[in-house]
């Protein structure tokens, strides 16, 4: 993957040209003497990794690149080369199994990719070749071909739109498969191209392929009868992306500019960085410990072997002579091979099967998330989406939650609430009693005049009607294709207003931002209807039902840096006007100050109430002003390089000296159960950080509404406003504030133990911290001489001691910066980012776990997330329910696996002391191989998929339970030590119990004796039963599956042992186990020792179970005493009573 | 290090989140099935380990284990066992001379008589074992040095034994039958028991050599090539193991069902012992039909034909006479272990009960749920 990308990078470096030149239709142009056909890649999409020929070597290579597989391969090779106690089959078979299964799976996936590739590549498209229409397979399209696409077809490659069947030279596309936005987007033909494409002679210069879907700069030179070539600028609105679908347009012609793997779609599917879960780190640490145990065991045995052999008569007694080869071997070489042999003998302590089981658990376990019907949202008809199964358990470990505000905490479903025109507040009343339904509810009291002038009102409403990029959805008669895709969204918008009749009767508004729709609809309520565009003319129906038309001259698009957008229109009367709307902070500096004061009060009050406010301003452009702006804009649009910057400069230049008309307030409602969810998260010990691009007041009110800030919360504010103080330098003030807050929040706070009980159980002051983007960059990137690292650590410490941190006015990149900062701070806490929009992608990718919400702002967040859920409220179940369970499951799985292999191998190690350190295995090869594959694998897999030590409802109702597993509690060194000691205890018990029994090997009433294989079989039987019963004891949730696999594997073990020992196997060299098992069962003593040892091994477990505070039954019917009041969840009795007493307490107070 | 097996799907270039343009028909299928399994709501038994359930278990275990332990202990104690070391390490030992003057090539067997006395009579069947110490029958090189298909009567393996048998695979260019170190080191002392009547005459005690090997070994696992007749012909072209004094078909010429590979002494030896100190069943002394004890108390002589050298590896040889019980030979360990575990459980039960009563009374009523 990486290599491919690197290759591409290098490949691009070789031809380091910033732009490519494309000859439309491969026709030479007058300007260039000789046509050198540039080489571009063909239009074949290759997403498959392998071909038939390279599959085996490449796949094997990739599999053995994994350290685990490589380790097992080495062990296998050692077994093949060196004379080792166990046959290569014992480790070769599991390895072969794993490798084969993985290879088959990957092969199948690759076959699917091949199939999908072929489907795309062999798709027939129509290409114009020398005036004829020719059918071609999609993969044969070359850059420069003119391609015809008809309605509802997807574009075969990235095209520049040359001609459309629609009169207005536009076409509609939907990019649902690219970014999930199902609305129709309008794309424009290049202006002034000839209708006759055969005679078109033009070149296109455009930038080299890059993955950004929304960026494209290019230039088209059109040559006409030896005239000076006309130059037209090309932007994203001219580019039709591969993968998008043509809608509402009969057919279009376009010229291919990017093909195959260079299309934006292909560039966007280049995989993501892999996230690794913290559990894996624990596993690796444990592995290291076990590797040390393994090596030291082998070393001890090798050393002792040579010590023992030095005694006379031991190395080579007369009854056990060495072969000539062994005698000749070099001593040191022998020592080395002995060491390797011991390694091989004990290598089962690190089992292949653990990797398989962990993978299976993760893979299968993730289905439960997508299957969960609680995650199903009837509105969008979708459930949760799992993009990676690697991070399931991480959901149970989250310490920091970074959430976006708009669309995540709030619904991003805007409703026009009120507006303020010239300082007077207007609120829409449903009853039309007041004049035109337009009433003044609140105005400046000291002024008698209750309403702003009618002219101002109308100007304001016209501005609302004109200053936007909303489209009117066409009547359904236009094409059936419109109906399905768009309807959901439109209906959603419409339904919420309870309004069924749109401006174009059946249509609705389509816009990239819901604010705009809300505003247009707001204006509609007051009598100004936007009727849509008619070839560059905007039509507005005013209160008198007259249709006014305005010629749209320029749209100065919205961008998050400027935080405003403008339109330049020409009225019928010939006036050129600029309407601008944007955030108060970006508008106020650009209008006259005296106007600001009247409106600011309203804006601020609206913001505190949680409304999104926008200010509207206008400006009459004089002839000269307009001409200047016009040329500036045109020039900037044609620029190939730095177009963005150049445009920005022009925009800023034009949008000055405006006069403020009014402000709007749009309500963004909270998501369902947003407050409950946030409360649950905080109750679970998570710190919630709100990262938003919104302004502070709005964000703050949302935080209050979500109960992230309580009444009692003391807010520590670090914003531009608090920094502006007494004219001192901002750095000084920042320094001072940071120290002050640090003192309050960190030093004065009573020392709290280990974060677990922080902030909610202790009754001390809650702190909330507010910072804005500008200040944050000051903190993070302050000048080197000032101690920036000091600021950063101060800032972090403050934040860590606050329950909630609100970061407002954040740029997307800053969001990621914050996540990164927290992620890398001491203790490396697990972070989770949740968001719904493109601006959250960076933080979703940055955090340990990224959650996307299937909201209204397109699909980018969902696509880049690890998990996607339809609503914010689902986060609670995802974390507290699924996450908790998955963590407990996988932690138990890992610990159990190490434990069961430790007590598997320890007897084998101990046996070396009794067999002259000769690497004699205790168990038969079949048992060695099957132990991890068959006898003990299924129960733990079933357990790790189905276990609910506490049932889902209780977990959800008691957020505090989440703290029990916080900080990787079940995979710490403490639990690991416990499991290891348990394994050692049981291993010792198994071996020595049988050892003492075998001091007299006559164990049957007929006086016959048992040999070494009987010894091993007894130990092994005890082992299998003990580890399986241990698992049974850990199981708190016995479904029929658990019963089936647990008792089933024991039965299978018995059956297999009988079967294996019941036949003389022709392919075996030695019939070691022939009737050993049956003979063992015929001995009463063997039965007795097996029962005794099983019971004795489990006794400490039983005792601990009793003495540990019992985890109550948590039956579904039983609702816990305390529901949500997190503060009171702590039962007053439980902490006061002695530990042992809790032992016998009933389930009613066992929730904690 | 953890695998990335299932991540391939992320790299999948053809998984566009094509949800937006799915028609209404496909959308319906997206609703997750409301099955108990998929919703993780399978009916489940959720065991509750409370004092109410665990305490009785402790007592029950204690009450079951202690009687079993006492039974085992008594049984083991009732088993009579006599062990005689006849290695001949001490100067005073009757076999000292034999153990000193040992050589593989000597044709005249060295015999020695070890007198011993029984303090109490041995009732019922008496089992005679020989025991070896410091003999590593479980050494890996030793354990694998055999060819089971040869022993199972496979003619091909008879002619060319498995490589595992090295260095006891061929001798004088001829394949060894039975090959391997285990067979080669077959225990070849002969032990005979004589009862010394009070009047001084010696009566030989009949030692039965059948029934000492596992039935399945004798009848299935070990087979002579080509049936039990004419073993001399069958084993023609093979060589005897280097340390043997006679060929495999001369192990028991008197009984064709106990000769060759199915000789029970041989089969017993071929079942390798688990520990370096072991015993193997040698002979059985069947009880007499009348009421007299099998071995009455009195003086006995053990006649040893001393063939098997153990002093080179500091081994010991023993002869063991033992009666049997339903649990096998004498081994007090099992009884003691049962008594101990039973007592521990009982004790724990009492301790827990005390704690339970002392602290748990307040919510005792709630203690016994469903």
UniProtKB/TrEMBL annotation, chain A:
Residue spans crossing the bilayer: 64-82, 285-308, 339-358, 976-998, 1013-1032, 1044-1065
Residue ranges of every copy of the P-type ATPase A domain listed in the record: 124-187
InterPro entries: ATPase_P-typ_cyto_dom_N, ATPase_P-typ_P_site, ATPase_P-typ_TM_dom_sf, ATPase_P-typ_transduc_dom_A_sf, ATPase_P-type_domA, HAD-like_sf, HAD_sf, P-type_ATPase_IV
UniProt subcellular location: Cell membrane; Early endosome; Endoplasmic reticulum membrane; Membrane
Gene Ontology cellular component annotations, sorted alphabetically: early endosome; endoplasmic reticulum membrane; plasma membrane; recycling endosome
Domain P-type ATPase N-terminal: 38-91
Name of the protein in its database record: Phospholipid-transporting ATPase
Automatic annotation (TrEMBL), chain B:
Topological relation to the membrane, as annotated: Multi-pass membrane protein
Transmembrane segments: 48-74, 333-355
Origin: domain of life: Eukaryota
Alphabetical list of Pfam families matching this protein: CDC50 (PF03381)
Biased composition (Basic and acidic residues): 161-171
GO biological process: phospholipid translocation
Any single GO CC term annotated in Swiss-Prot or TrEMBL for this entry: apical plasma membrane
Transport found in the keyword field: yes
Location in the cell: Apical cell membrane; Cytoplasmic vesicle, Secretory vesicle membrane; Golgi apparatus; Membrane
Keywords attached to this entry: Cell membrane, Cytoplasmic vesicle, Disulfide bond, Glycoprotein, Golgi apparatus, Lipid transport, Membrane, Transmembrane, Transmembrane helix, Transport
This protein's record includes keyword Thylakoid: no
Chain spans, region Disordered: 1-32, 146-171
Family per record: Belongs to the CDC50/LEM3 family.
Name of this protein: Cell cycle control protein
């Amino acid at each position: 993957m990486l290599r491919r990308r690197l290759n591409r990078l290098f490949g691009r470096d070789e031809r380091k040209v910033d732009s490519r030149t494309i000859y439309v239709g491969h026709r030479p142009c007058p300007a260039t003497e000789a046509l050198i056909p540039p080489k571009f890649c063909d239009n074949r999409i290759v997403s498959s990794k392998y071909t038939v020929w390279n599959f085996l070597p490449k796949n094997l290579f990739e599999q053995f690149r994994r350290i685990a597989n490589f380790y097992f391969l080495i062990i296998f090779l050692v077994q093949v080369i060196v004379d080792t106690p166990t046959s290569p089959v014992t480790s070769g078979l599991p390895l072969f199994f794993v490798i084969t299964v993985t290879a088959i799976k990957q092969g199948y996936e690759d076959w699917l990719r091949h199939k999908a590739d072929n489907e795309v590549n062999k798709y027939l498209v129509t290409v114009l070749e020398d005036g004829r229409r020719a059918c071609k397979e999609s993969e044969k399209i070359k850059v420069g071909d003119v391609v015809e696409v008809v309605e509802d077809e997807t574009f075969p490659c990235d095209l520049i739109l040359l001609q459309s069947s629609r009169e207005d030279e536009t076409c509609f596309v939907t990019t649902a498969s690219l970014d999930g936005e199902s609305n129709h987007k309008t794309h424009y033909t290049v202006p002034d191209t000839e209708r006759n494409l055969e005679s078109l002679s033009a070149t296109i210069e455009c930038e080299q392929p890059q993955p950004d879907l929304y960026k494209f700069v290019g230039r088209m030179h059109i040559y006409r009868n030896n005239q000076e070539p006309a130059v037209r600028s090309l932007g994203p609105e001219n580019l039709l992306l591969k993968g998008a679908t043509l809608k509402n347009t009969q057919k279009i012609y376009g010229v291919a500019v990017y093909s195959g793997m260079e299309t934006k779609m292909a560039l966007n599917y280049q995989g993501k960085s892999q996230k690794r879960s913290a559990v894996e780190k624990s596993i690796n640490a444990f592995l290291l410990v076990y590797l040390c145990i393994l090596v030291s065991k082998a070393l001890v045995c090798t050393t002792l072997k040579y010590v023992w052999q030095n005694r006379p008569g031991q190395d080579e007694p007369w009854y056990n002579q060495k072969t000539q080869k062994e005698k000749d071997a070099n001593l040191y070489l022998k020592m080395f091979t002995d060491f390797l042999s011991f390694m091989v003998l004990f290598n089962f302590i690190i089992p292949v099967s653990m990797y398989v089981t962990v993978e299976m658990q993760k893979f299968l376990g993730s289905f439960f998330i997508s299957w969960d019907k609680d995650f199903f949202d009837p509105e969008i008809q979708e459930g949760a989406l799992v993009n990676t199964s690697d991070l399931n358990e991480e959901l149970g470990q989250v310490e920091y939650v970074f959430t976006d505000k708009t669309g995540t905490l709030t619904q991003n479903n805007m409703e026009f609430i009120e507006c303020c025109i010239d300082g007077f507040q207007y609120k829409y009343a449903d009853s039309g009693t007041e004049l035109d339904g337009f009433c003044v509810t609140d105005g400046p009291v000291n002024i008698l005049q209750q309403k702003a002038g009618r002219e101002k009102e109308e100007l304001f409403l016209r501005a609302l009607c004109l200053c936007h990029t909303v489209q009117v959805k066409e009547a359904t008669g236009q094409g059936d294709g419109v109906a399905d895709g768009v309807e959901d969204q439109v209906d959603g918008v419409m339904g919420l207003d309870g309004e069924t009749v749109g401006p174009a009767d059946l249509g609705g508004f389509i816009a990239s931002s819901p604010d705009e729709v809300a505003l247009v609809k707001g204006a509609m309520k007051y009598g100004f209807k936007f009727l849509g565009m008619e070839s560059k003319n905007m039509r507005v129906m005013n209160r008198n039902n007259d249709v006014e038309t305005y010629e749209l001259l320029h749209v100065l698009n919205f961008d998050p840096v400027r935080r405003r957008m403008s339109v330049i229109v020409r009225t019928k009367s010939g006036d050129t006007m600029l309407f601008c709307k944007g955030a108060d902070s970006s508008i106020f500096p650009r209008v006259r100050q005296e106007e600001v004061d009247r409106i600011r009060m309203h804006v601020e009050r609206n913001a505190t109430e949680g409304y999104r406010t926008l200010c509207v301003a206008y400006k009459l452009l004089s002839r000269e002003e307009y001409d200047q702006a016009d040329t500036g804009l045109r020039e900037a649009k044609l620029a190939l390089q730095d177009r963005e910057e150049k445009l920005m400069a022009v925009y800023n230049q034009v949008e000055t000296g405006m006069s403020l008309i009014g402000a709007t307030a749009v309500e963004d409602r909270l998501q369902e159960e947003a407050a409950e969810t946030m409360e649950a998260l905080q109750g679970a010990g998570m710190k919630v950080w709100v990262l938003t691009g919104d302004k502070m007041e709005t964000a703050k009110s949302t935080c209050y509404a979500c109960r992230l800030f309580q009444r009692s919360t003391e807010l520590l504010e670090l914003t531009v406003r608090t920094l502006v103080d007494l004219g001192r330098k901002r750095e000084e003030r920042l320094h001072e504030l940071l120290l002050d807050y640090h003192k309050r929040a960190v030093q004065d706070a009573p020392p709290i133990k280990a974060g677990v009980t922080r902030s909610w159980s202790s009754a001390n002051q809650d702190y909330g911290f507010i910072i804005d983007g500008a200040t944050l960059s000051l903190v993070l990137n302050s000048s080197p001489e000032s101690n920036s690292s000091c600021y950063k650590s101060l800032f972090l410490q403050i934040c860590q001691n606050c329950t909630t941190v609100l970061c407002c006015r954040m740029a997307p990149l800053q969001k990621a910066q914050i996540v990164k900062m927290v992620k890398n701070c001491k203790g490396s806490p697990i972070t989770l980012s949740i968001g719904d929009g493109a601006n959250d992608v960076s933080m979703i990718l940055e955090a340990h776990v990224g959650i996307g919400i299937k909201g209204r702002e397109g699909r980018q967040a969902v696509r880049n997330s690890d998990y996607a859920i339809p609503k914010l409220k689902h986060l609670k179940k995802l974390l507290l329910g699924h996450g908790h369970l998955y963590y407990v499951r996988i932690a138990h799985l890992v610990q159990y696996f190490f434990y069961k292999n430790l007590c598997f191998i320890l007897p084998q190690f101990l046996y070396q002391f009794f067999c002259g350190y000769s690497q004699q295995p205790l168990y038969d090869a079949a048992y060695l191989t099957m132990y991890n594959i068959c006898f003990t694998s299924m129960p733990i897999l079933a357990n790790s998929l189905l276990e609910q030590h506490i049932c889902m409802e209780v977990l959800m109702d008691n957020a505090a339970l989440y703290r029990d597993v916080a900080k990787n509690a079940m995979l710490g060194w403490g639990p690991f030590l416990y499991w290891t000691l348990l394994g050692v205890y049981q291993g010792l018990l198994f071996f020595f119990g049988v050892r003492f029994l075998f001091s007299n090997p006559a164990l049957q009433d007929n006086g016959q004796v048992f040999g070494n294989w009987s010894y091993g079989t007894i130990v092994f039987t005890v082992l299998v039963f003990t580890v399986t019963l241990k698992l049974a004891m850990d199981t708190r949730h016995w479904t029929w599956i658990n019963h089936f696999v647990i008792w089933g594997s024991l039965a299978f073990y018995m059956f297999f042992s009988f079967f294996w020992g019941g036949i003389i196997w022709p392919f075996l060299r030695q019939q070691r186990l022939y009737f050993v098992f049956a003979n063992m069962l015929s001995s009463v003593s063997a039965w007795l020792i097996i029962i005794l040892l099983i019971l004795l091994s489990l006794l400490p477990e039983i005792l601990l179970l009793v003495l540990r505070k019992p985890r109550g039954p948590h039956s579904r019917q039983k609702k816990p005493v305390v529901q949500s009041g997190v503060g009171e969840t702590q039962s007053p009795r439980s902490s006061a009573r002695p530990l042992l007493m809790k032992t016998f307490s009933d389930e009613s107070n066992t929730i904690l | 290090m953890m695998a990335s097996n299932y991540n391939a799907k992320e790299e999948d270039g053809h998984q566009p989140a094509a949800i937006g343009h799915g028609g209404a028909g496909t959308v319906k299928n997206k609703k997750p099935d409301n099955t108990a399994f998929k919703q993780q709501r399978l009916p489940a038994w959720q065991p509750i380990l409370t004092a109410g359930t665990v305490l009785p278990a402790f007592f029950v275990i204690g009450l079951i284990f202690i009687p079993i332990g006492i039974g085992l202990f008594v049984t083991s104690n009732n088993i009579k066992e006599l062990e005689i070391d006849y290695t001949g390490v001490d100067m005073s030992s009757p076999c000292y001379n034999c153990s000193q003057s040992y050589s593989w090539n000597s044709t005249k067997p060295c015999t020695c008589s070890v007198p011993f006395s029984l303090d109490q009579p041995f009732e019922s069947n008496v089992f005679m074992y020989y025991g070896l110490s410091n003999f590593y029958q479980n050494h890996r090189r030793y354990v694998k040095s055999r060819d089971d298909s040869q022993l199972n009567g496979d003619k091909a393996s008879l002619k060319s034994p498995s490589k595992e048998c090295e260095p006891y695979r061929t001798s004088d260019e001829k394949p060894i039958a039975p090959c391997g170190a285990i067979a080669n080191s077959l225990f070849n002392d002969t032990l005979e028991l004589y009862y010394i009547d009070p009047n001084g005459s010696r009566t030989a005690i009949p030692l039965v050599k059948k029934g000492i090997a596992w039935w399945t070994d004798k009848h299935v696992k070990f087979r002579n090539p080509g049936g039990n007749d004419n073993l001399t012909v069958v084993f023609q072209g093979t060589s005897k193991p280097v340390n043997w004094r006679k060929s495999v078909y001369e192990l028991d010429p008197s009984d064709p069902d106990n000769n060759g590979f199915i000789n029970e002494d041989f089969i017993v030896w071929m079942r390798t012992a688990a520990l370096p100190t072991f015993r193997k069943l040698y002979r059985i002394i069947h009880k007499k039909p009348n009421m007299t004890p099998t071995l009455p108390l009195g003086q006995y002589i053990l006649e040893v034909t001393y063939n098997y050298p153990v002093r080179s590896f500091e081994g010991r040889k023993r002869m063991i006479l033992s009666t049997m019980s339903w649990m096998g030979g004498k081994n007090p360990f099992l009884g003691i272990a049962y008594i101990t575990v039973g007592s521990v459980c009982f004790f724990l039960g009492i301790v827990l009960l005390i704690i339970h009563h002392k602290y748990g009374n307040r919510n005792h009523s709630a203690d016994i749920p469903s």
